[in-house]
Design brief:
Elements (H helix, E strand, L loop, with lengths): L10 H14 L3 H30 L9 H9 L12
């Protein structure tokens, strides 16, 4: 089942959408619907993972590693003096 949604977009975006629809032999509605779906899925995933990480970080036994230690370890990758992972 689907429904109609009216939106306002910039004239240049509309022109680009029309060109893309023609080039891909897809309707503008299909392209917009696909783009919205991808945007929602990505953002839902991100929010879900953030909430999961915050819940884990809020536990009384949560352990953290200083950002500087992790950054120094990553910066050492590919060098002759590769550091061991921080604990």
């Amino acid at each position: 089942m689907s429904t109609t949604l009216t939106i306002r977009i910039d004239d240049k975006i509309k022109e680009r959408l029309e060109r893309l629809a023609k080039a891909t032999a897809r309707s503008k509605s299909y392209l917009v619907s696909t783009a919205i779906n991808g945007f929602i899925e990505a953002n839902e995933w991100q929010i879900r993972e953030i909430k999961k990480a915050v819940k884990k970080a809020d536990q009384h036994d949560a352990k953290f590693i200083d950002h500087e230690d992790v950054a120094a370890w990553l910066d050492s990758w590919g060098t002759k003096n590769k550091k061991k992972p921080p604990r």
